[in-house]
Amino acid sequence: AVPIQGGHLLYSMHAMAALWSEHSFVRKASKRSSSCLTSGILAGLARLGSSGQFSGGDDPSKAGGDNPSKAPFLYSHGPRGVSLLMSLSQGVGQYLDSADQTARLGGMRVACSFSALTGHDLSFPELIEVEEKEEKERRKLRKSAISLNASKRRGNGSIKDGFLLSSQKEQEEGKGKEQE
Questions:
Q1: Are 110 and 92 in contact (CB under 8 A)?
Q2: What is the distance between the alpha carbons of residues 84 and 163, in angstroms, rounded to a whole number?
Q3: To 10 degrees, what angle do helices 101-117 and 84-96 make?
Q4: Model-level pTM?
Q5: What is the 3-state secondary structure (H, E, C) of 42-84?
Q6: Which of 51-60, 70-79, 127-136 has the lowest mean pLDDT?
């Protein structure tokens, strides 16, 4: 993994989490904006979690929190003086209260992501059900794409084979009919 230089990703994560957890953003943002920001947060958490280093400086003990040894970047305080974990937790609560299923699922995904980073196992039956449906749909689409590609290859081959294998007499008869 490429080392995270100067905490730029962590700073960006604090900014994204601040916007993502804002009450007005949760309630009024378009589904696309909310989905994009949720994806960015998930990608950032995955990147910070896989880095294996504290991104807010050289001393992980400055991260604070209950258990700074597990994903210490979650406990670091950002420009607003709030830890990343606190911002994300506040946002998750608002997303889980949302009537919109897409928003709720986004909140569940973020909650599962940061809870896994802290060593806690968290799951939501609604999220598991939706992810299973999505996986079935992906498999179905892959299977149909493979089937379509195979039939295209067979189809193109059979046209050429049919033309090339037709008898000379049949080809001449076809030309004779065209001239009439």
A1: yes
A2: 67
A3: 150
A4: 0.67
A5: HHHHHHHHHHCCCCCCCCHHHHCCCCCCCCHHHHCECCCCCEH
A6: 51-60
> What residues pair up with 83 in beta bridges, in sequence order?
77
Q: Which of 124, 103, 102 is nearest to 113 (CA)?
A: 124
Q: Is the pLDDT of residue 175 over 90?
A: no
How does DSSP classify residue 99? S
Residue type, 98: S
pLDDT tier, 31 (very low <50, low <70, confident <90, very high otherwise): very high
Residues 78, 41: Cα–Cα separation, whole Å: 15
Residue with tokens 């700074």: 68
Task: Report pLDDT for 63.
Answer: 38
Question: Where is 130: in which H helix or E strand?
Answer: helix 125-165
Residues 149-155 have a mean pLDDT of 67
The mean per-residue pLDDT over the stretch 106-122 comes to: 91
* Chain center to CA of 10: 19
Which residues, in sequence order, are bridge partners of residue 44? none
Q: Are 117 and 74 in contact (CB under 8 A)?
A: yes
Say how far apart CA 75 and CA 65 lie, in whole Å: 5
Strand partners, 77: 83
